Amino acid sequence: MITSTAISTAQTIVLVAADDSVIENINLYPGRAELTRIFKVVVHEGENHVDIHGLPVSLVDDSLRIEGHGWATICDVVVSQDDPDRISALSSTTTQIASLKRQRKELFVRVSATQQSRSALGTYLNTIKADNTGLASLSAIFEEQERLAGELDVRILDLEKELSDVDKLIDAERENSQSNNAKQLTRKISITVLAQKAGEVTVDVKYRKYLLVVQGANWKPIYEIQANTQSTEKPLTLLYKALITQSTYEFWKNTTLTLETITPSLSMSPPHITPWHLWVRHRRPSTPLNVYNMPMSQPHMHMAAMQQPTIIINQPPTMFPSSRSRSRSPPPRMQHLQVAATDNGGIMATFRVPGVVNLPSDGQQHNMTIAQLDLQADFIWYTIPSQHARTFIKAKIKNGSDYRFISGKAKTYVDGSFASTGTMPAVSPQDTFDFSLGIDPGIKVTYHPREKKAAQSGIYSKSTNHTFIQRISIHNAKSTPVKNLKVTDRVPISDDQRIEVRLISPALTLPAATSATEKNPSSILKLKSKQSVSDTVKVSSSVTANWNGLGEQDVDQKALGKDGVVCWLVSLAAQGRVTLVLQYEVSHAEGLDINGF
């Protein structure tokens, strides 16, 4: 809507943001949106006052930027509250919706009452007994029942039609209130334009809005991972999506959308460091007691006065120390209350949604696909049967794309079936990360009861030897083979030189004593050979064993085996079975009470 009023030589142009502009672009951040509106304005030569109404109350004044194209100069920009008369006119929309809702409720009650009458009429007809009623009377009853039923049916249809019409009116008023909301679109921008000649100019209005999570705009990444464990070339497909919600009371129509992943710093000062002072505490010299000047008649009173400062009962703390404490040391520097801040990942990315989008201000969640990526991944099955007799599967995935993954929720499908939900970590392009794919029910694990045998040895210095045997049975119940199955268990570690632990099966090399244990011979495990602790032992044609963490980048290879954790790497054919054996011996002097068995 464009109107003009001649006041002296100035022209006043009235515009409504929702009606007289188009949204050129939206930069959507988590909890914040940046909009650019384009207005086409016909000005006359000289001074023009352009009033833009219907802007959101969440508009940040400092973020406003006005640019123009054409033979004109922008002289002044003023942001203010909209006219009270216009706000009052817009408030009628809210009143109208409330009135229609009341009308709808009344119609619903009338429909329910009429339906109950129709049902009661049928119930009455079922109570009539043909044996006690004559044929003529029965015929009259049927005719009256048919007439009443017809009237009630017509009344129900009419009321339902009125109810449907009211619903349409409510929807229309709600749609109108989205673009003209009395409480949320009450800001106005007044622009003074000095035109060199008459004609059309373009005014770009860019503003930022701070938005609440419930009532605003937001986007977050979501993922859908489809893993094919039988494929060898790029077995994992990742759907990268954006979940967008907006209830800004502005209809985002035919506009381009850019998704941002980081919000710029606002009013943030860089940190600075202050000097760190050290000082020596100066104790106040004690004053010798002059017993000669003490009145002899009051000894008990003087003792009470001496002891009183050291006893404080039910006395609230004071803000400042006493004069005596100030004399001992200087007061500490007063600190300001620090508010904790959390940075979730620190990865920056920008996504431009292709084409144009139409997002109504409905508060609903809208899915938009950012990319579909085929990624290389290695699958690893793992189980810790002493803790949980289930087999889990994880994927070591390489992000071979140019997209940055932002931390968000992910749904996982393995071999076409839904497996689990999880959280995608923040990942940069070309990085590798681990992601859990849930439980594989096709691999059965049995952790058998541990066998224990005890024996004594020695003549003069007797010792007790405990031999433990732990068996783990694994069955691949699937019709496909499984490789890279990692089974983890542990042997005890000794914190006392009088306790000796010896690993028998698998025959792994025990770690040597560290410098600390060389001084204190209570080694973690007894060294039994000169072989490398990083060696892998072949248990069978399909099973190897090693210390946990062998070859892993984030594990200190010099500390292998010192935690007592043993791993088997198993390959199982379809319907294959295998039994793993962990055997170790614990020896100690007779009579010691050993904790931890």
From TrEMBL:
Keywords: Coiled coil. InterPro entries: CHP02231 (IPR011935), DUF4139 (IPR037291), DUF4140 (IPR025554). Residues 27-118 form the DUF4140 domain. Pfam families: DUF4139 (PF13598), DUF4140 (PF13600). Residues 142-176 form a coiled coil. It comes from the Eukaryota. Residues 212-589 form the DUF4139 domain. This is DUF4139 domain-containing protein.
